[in-house]
Design a protein that fits this description.
With about 375 residues, this protein is an alpha/beta fold. The chain contains 14 helices and 15 strands.
């Protein structure tokens, strides 16, 4: 099959969508499909995989994303006459997926990776109704123009069905996936002692962007409270972003327990996860986070807040969420940090269960589901 993925998120952009698409593209190529990625920006990037078509784009503020109205000549030629077009999200490159699919009368598939209704709350209140109407309108448009629409989680799929009930039957769930073997064989990046961490300490780890929607100040406050209550805990923060300085300042009273390691190559993430005990993320806006899937694959339980996407990972067997958690109060979360820090057998039990759960996110199986969808779309 000749398959085109159109996305604004692709390495070196760091997020879950980017990580998943890179692995999905590699799997398609390994199975000898004529798979292509179309994206904007980072034209000087040396891609390890073939058929990655980058068109120069204008930066969108400080987001890291790039924008253009059209593909360049070489990319445009490659985009002609594909068997199936796959739009990831509703903006930028995905708009061109719709254009090429309609002009060539080939099938279009649409995946909504983001809970836009939750992200909108980060904007000024007066803007929110207009952004909600515009964003939901675009989602509905893509759903109606596509032969099938997907989401990585049940909660997001339900939202899509509410947005466009007239085509609700087209929506199905296909979750994200990772290469499990990268985590099965991973060894710790370095000794804990090199970071000033005692061997008997409990190491919590976060991997991702340090941005407002990730709600990281909540976990920082909970960690500060937990250490104050005697928890022998440390926090490794892998990633970078505009919130880093504020987080460091917030954690200054326990600076020896907070380790900001910055952005690291994706190939190094399994080794850092292998060094840790618990994956921690307080985000309320995720869908089916690749970072949590990677933690599960590493045999690490998770801790976080009440959010619909946690149900995808079956708490409390595989992770811990505070009961009755209040979104503006870090005390319950601090209690969980103290509890997990003092209970190594509980962590080990949840970690083993998490490892078992991760098997359902094998990228080979996930890509297999997509291949079936592509084939069905082509057959009509």
């Amino acid at each position: 099959m000749r398959i085109g993925q159109f996305t604004d998120s692709y390495p070196p952009i760091i997020n879950g969508v980017s990580a998943f698409l890179a692995e999905h593209h590699a799997q398609l190529l390994s199975q000898e499909h004529d798979a292509h990625i179309f994206t904007f920006g980072y034209t000087g990037t040396r891609d390890d995989q073939r058929n990655v078509w980058r068109t120069a784009g204008v930066p969108i503020f400080t987001s890291g994303f790039r924008m253009n109205l059209w593909l360049n000549a070489r990319a445009g030629e490659a985009a002609q006459g594909l068997d199936v077009y796959h739009a990831h999200e509703t903006f930028g490159a995905s708009r061109l997926a719709m254009h090429y699919a309609l002009s060539s009368q080939r099938p279009l598939l649409f995946t909504n990776h983001t809970r836009h209704d939750l992200y909108i709350h980060n904007y000024p209140r007066l803007m929110q109704p207009f952004m909600r109407r515009g964003t939901f309108g675009l989602i509905a448009k893509f759903m109606r123009r596509s032969v099938a629409a997907t989401a990585p989680s049940e909660e997001t799929a339900d939202l899509m069905r509410q947005i466009a009930p007239d085509v609700a039957e087209r929506v199905r769930v296909i979750r994200n996936g990772v290469r499990l073997d990268q985590f099965d064989s991973a060894k710790p990046r370095e000794s804990r002692g090199a970071l000033g961490i005692a061997r008997d300490a409990t190491v919590f780890i976060y991997v991702g962007r340090l941005t407002p929607e990730k709600n990281l100040p909540m976990f920082a406050e909970a960690m500060r409270l937990a250490v104050g209550k005697g928890a022998n805990a440390h926090w490794l923060v892998i990633g970078d972003g505009p919130c880093r300085d504020d987080l460091a300042q917030q954690l200054f009273p326990i600076a020896a327990r907070a380790h900001f390691l910055g952005a690291v190559p994706r190939a190094d993430v399994p080794a850092w996860l292998a060094m840790a005990d618990v994956f921690a993320t307080p985000s309320l806006s995720e869908v089916n986070p690749v970072s949590v899937i990677e933690a599960l694959a590493s045999g690490k339980p998770y801790v976080g807040l009440h959010a619909g996407w946690w149900n995808e990972f079956e708490p409390p067997r595989n992770g811990h969420v505070p009961p009755g958690f209040l979104a503006d109060d870090a005390r319950d979360l601090a209690h969980v940090i103290v509890k997990l820090s003092a209970d190594a057998p509980a962590r080990a039990g949840m970690g083993a269960s998490a490892k078992s759960l991760s098997r359902r996110f094998d990228i080979r199986d996930i890509t297999g589901q997509w291949i079936e969808m592509y084939q069905a779309a082509i057959m009509g």
